[in-house]
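Retry 2 of 3 after timeout on previous attempt. Resubmitting structure tokens to design endpoint.
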């Protein structure tokens, strides 16, 4: 079994798809069921991101390789045994390969999607897995605690039971230490944007210069100013799934961003002959490539110098958690959970609910005015 990645020569409906996964048997013949599934699952618009191509390709490659080594047929869903071919693959991944539950769950997700497609195509008579009722935790009321009694939900019975690890976030003292350690004004502003908006790494990397303006000159007196993140406005903004959304940036921080543009950004912009659209440029005056992987290194290395273990997504968790608590306690007249959901760009509010579990960890009254305190303590760049 071989997994290869397409070149520009793979053209579908007149469009090239370099990097698209292709699964081949040892004879170098196409693994037709898997490759048809790839086209259905990854190109029909439901995924919306090329980032899913490698994980989907590797999951199917690993599953078909397992079947090949153990002389199993993926179509054998009527085995007459207690354990299905997918169940056998799950146990092999967990027990023999010692994969984590989360990695195994991710691979099984794609394998199950493959079988659902296979059933639609009538390649198999039924699914090699079922559904069972499991107890799940639920959240009751307005920012209530988790109901430990839980409720019942029907879930895929092939999946390992999920033990959710709560996201980690920074305290106010850690935020101050992180920013005090970073003396590079460009890197410092990158970290601040993550902390004060909850943007994803690739959103920080592509955040357009065109979105920045002086709120005073524009006569904007609102405390929080709405900014439209629109991948289709011609400024190069990238969002998950290319979905437009509105975010709010405090007036004070927007003024800081404008000062950064006027006083500091030009230093790097002058290094390139091209007028680049992103707000942040690297030391060569070029935009951060690879969805901002270099930004992830900047955050990680800054944290290391400050004695704090931190990554870019933790900045997002920090923003969400502190903002949720601040909105709850200030009774701002908006639904805190809905506001944070929209700010972060979560498709489902269930994803945002994870931050409710972190609320009790914040006892410091400083979180009541998270954005104000950040700006007051740090001052202008």
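Retry 2 succeeded. Sequence:
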């Amino acid at each position: 079994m071989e997994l290869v990645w397409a070149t520009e020569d793979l053209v579908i409906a007149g469009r090239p798809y370099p990097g698209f996964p292709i699964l081949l048997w040892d004879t170098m013949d196409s693994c037709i069921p898997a490759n048809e599934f790839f086209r259905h699952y990854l190109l029909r618009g439901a995924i919306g991101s090329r980032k899913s191509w490698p994980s989907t390709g590797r999951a199917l490659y690993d599953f078909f390789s397992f079947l090949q080594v153990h002389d199993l047929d993926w179509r054998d869903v009527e085995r007459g045994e207690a354990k299905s071919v997918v169940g056998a693959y799950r146990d092999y991944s967990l027990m023999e390969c010692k994969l984590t539950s989360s990695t195994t769950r991710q691979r099984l997700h794609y394998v199950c999607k493959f079988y659902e497609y296979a059933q639609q195509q009538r390649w198999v008579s039924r699914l090699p897995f079922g559904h069972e009722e499991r107890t799940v935790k639920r959240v009751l009321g307005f920012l209530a605690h988790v109901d430990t009694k839980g409720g019942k939900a029907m879930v895929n019975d092939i999946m390992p039971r999920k033990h959710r690890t709560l996201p980690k976030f920074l305290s106010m003292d850690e935020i101050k230490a992180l920013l005090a350690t970073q003396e590079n004004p460009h890197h410092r502003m990158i970290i601040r944007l993550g902390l004060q908006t909850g943007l994803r790494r690739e959103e920080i990397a592509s955040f357009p210069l065109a979105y920045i303006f002086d709120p005073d000159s524009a006569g904007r007196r609102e405390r929080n100013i709405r900014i439209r993140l629109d991948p289709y406005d011609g400024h190069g903004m990238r969002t998950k799934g290319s979905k437009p959304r509105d975010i709010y940036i405090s007036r004070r921080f927007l003024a800081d961003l404008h000062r950064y543009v006027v006083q500091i950004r030009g230093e790097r912009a002058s290094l390139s002959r091209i007028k680049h659209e992103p707000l942040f440029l690297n030391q060569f005056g070029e935009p951060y490539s690879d969805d901002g992987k270099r930004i992830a290194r900047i955050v990680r290395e800054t944290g290391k110098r400050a004695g704090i273990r931190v990554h870019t997504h933790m900045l997002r968790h920090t923003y969400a958690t502190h903002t949720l608590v601040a909105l709850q306690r200030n009774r701002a007249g908006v639904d805190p959970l809905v506001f944070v959901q929209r700010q972060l760009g979560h498709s489902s509010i269930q994803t945002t609910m994870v931050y409710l579990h972190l609320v009790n960890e914040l006892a410091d009254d400083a979180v009541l005015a998270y954005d104000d305190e950040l700006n007051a303590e740090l001052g202008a760049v």
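Attempt log closed. The CA atoms of residues 57 and 176 lie 42 Å apart.
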